[in-house]
Amino acid sequence: xxxxxxxxxxxxxxxxxNHGQFINASGGSSWAPSxxxxxxxxxxxxxxxxxxxxxxxxxxxxxxxxxxxxKQEGTADNYFVNGAIIDSTSKFAQRLQKFLDLFRSRGxxxxxxxxxxxxxxxxxxxxxCGFAALVQALNQLYYWRLSKKDLSILARLGSxxxxxxxxxxxxxxxxxxxxxxxxxxxxxxxxNWPQLRIGTLAISLQEKPISSTEAMQRTVKTSSLYxxxxxxxxxxxxxxxxxxxxxxxVLLGQTAENNALAMHALINSAQPPIIYSLPExxxxxxxxxxxxxxxLPIFFTQDAGPNLQLLFLAEHEPIVLRxxxxxxxxxxxxDNHVEQVVLVDKNDTEIGTCEKLAAHIQGKLHxxxxxxxxxxxxxxxEVLLQQRSANKYHSANLWSNTCCGHPRLGEEIIAAAExxxxxxxxxxxxxxxxxxxxxMAKFTAVDLIENELDHxxxxxxxxxxxxxxxxxxxxxxxxxxxxxxxxxxxxxxxxTIWLPQALNLLLQRL
Length: 510
Ligand code: PMV
Hints:
7-stranded mixed beta sheet; single chain
């Protein structure tokens, strides 16, 4: 059998770059989402290059992931996770250092800052987002300009499942056949399914007793069931792809659940056996089955750990949350990390930019705007409200001012607000700024923090019908300003949390 080392793969991938010659002095940074496999990767045909026995398919976990910054500096590597320095003798630091050795030139060192909302090493796929974000950050640091395919191959060298975290949405990691793994990388499936919800059920955040790498090796070597796995995985993959194409949720959920149970059956049958489930895991599985018996389409999947990911549709979220109040719900298709926001100090002076999602995970103060479109109606003033779409990453389904958003770097507030008003409401109007205010709020259900310097703008229209963008807005209505003020006191739960503050500023100005 031909054998290739990681260093040779890296050399091959970087052959057309000026590796290490150009370095971005301000470092490289990137966000990558975590992912959960609906058809699992379990077993390597080449443990050095993390080449899998089977293809796998995952869905990215919305706002769960890692934001990683890397700089080449210092006389030793220093790694930080959420601001705390990592002991250089820890398993985590050693794994990271070994991976970075593939890329460093002699005598160089790195400072790596990882901000993550995925618990490390507890079976919540922290290595998937971690290595994907890291290779993307290196790509920026060294100006490699690599394709997603090459980034997926490099991420795979860190952790198999990381090959899928260079994309969002549904992602297939094709197993490939080549000994060098150049055909073993992930591709993004075209289909979106915004109504899909994944609920992460944390059963235990303790470090798992056996790493997935070790458990995989032991399973492949010793489980008498392993022979049946490639065929099962192939069939499950085909069914999941069919389910995605047809938006057949029951087929998707049932197949994903069976696939996870089959993977755990292999793991359990290794010698010596490995059991990741805890009593609470089984209790939660029983609860899922009971809900299904009561006709609720809900399924689960389980990685190499005791925690579960529940699969359900947006319309059933309230019932699911009643059954699992501790559930952390993610919207896999709320694709909001690609946009950048402008970071500011409290005087609204620009201090940098940041991926939108990373800014909201870390609660970094950034520039935003809120627009009120007004009209005169029988001597009163009315305001156009929008109801946010069910797919928004926070404050979904709530009523709010006409539109909100974030200006891009170098974009004037007014131009940004007029752009966004057209994108969301299909309305062209000229706007003027009246005020600004600071607001901070934590959205615990989705683990996001808004910390905004919010510019309030107003504009007028005579129109009545608006070709709204249904990805953003589900409905709109005109309401008398004073009636809105009164309803906000009586039914605050119907409205976004920032609306009262913005409205007060508006009322003071009129
Ligand atoms: O990427 P690794 O080596 O941590 O393996 C991940 C294995 C599973 O999470 C259990 C399955 C998968 O496909 O993600």
